[in-house]
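Let's practice the habit of predicting before peeking. Look at the sequence and jot down your guess about where helices and strands might fall. Then scroll down.
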Amino acid sequence: MKTCLLFVVGVLLGLIGVAQARSLGAIRDSGVLGLCAHPNSLPFANKAGDPPGFQIELGGAFARELGVSLRLDWIITQYQMRSAGCDIVLDVIADREAQGETRLRISKPYYRTGVVLAVPSSSALTSLGSLNESTKVGVQVGSVAAMIIGQRRVPTSTFGFETDSLDAVSNHEIDAAAVTPTAASYFNLTHPDKALRILDRDEGVADLNWNVAVGMVRPDDALREAIDGALERLHNDGTIDRIYGRYGIVLQPPR
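Done guessing? Here is the structure:
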């Protein structure tokens, strides 16, 4: 499901190809690594800074690996990307087709995600295959998940944001929400009194699963190699898992 990430990811990818990238040498000369992030999109990023969001924490780790400081380029609409001048975007779908016209260069993938069903703890649902004509599922408007579930003649209710569909499940307004594990896990962390059961991803439905990587804006080979090297080190020493874990998210290895 290539379009079911949180709104922030779609916004950031929209016109990233127009931003001017810098080489690794230029980044080190300037002493800063620019990260594009949405200012109000927890658990991804949060301009208020408490908590900052895992993208900000991971961006800081990358900057330290490169020996520079992190500059945050806050983006709300795709039109602001023209003047942002950021160097990287995080949590990018590692797939050429998904990138479309963004012209992003992507790093090696560092985790796998997709679409899951979040259901009440008492629900009898066990998988996508257990949905039927009597189960109503919350989906994001225009998403591939909405199309796939709708094709199975399962009633759906559309939402603009994953949090809204998760709230609807917790309030027993719908039977399940088709969301990313990121959104469901953070919801459970921040709503312990309303925690939902998160069903396993169905790898049998290719469009509902994808790898995630770092997106780089027209990098030179040195920057791409440096980001890949930093990813490997941060993975091996447990930094990446610890950062996402602070937001209730357990990463799955890429495939």
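How did you do? The longest helix spans residues 221-236.
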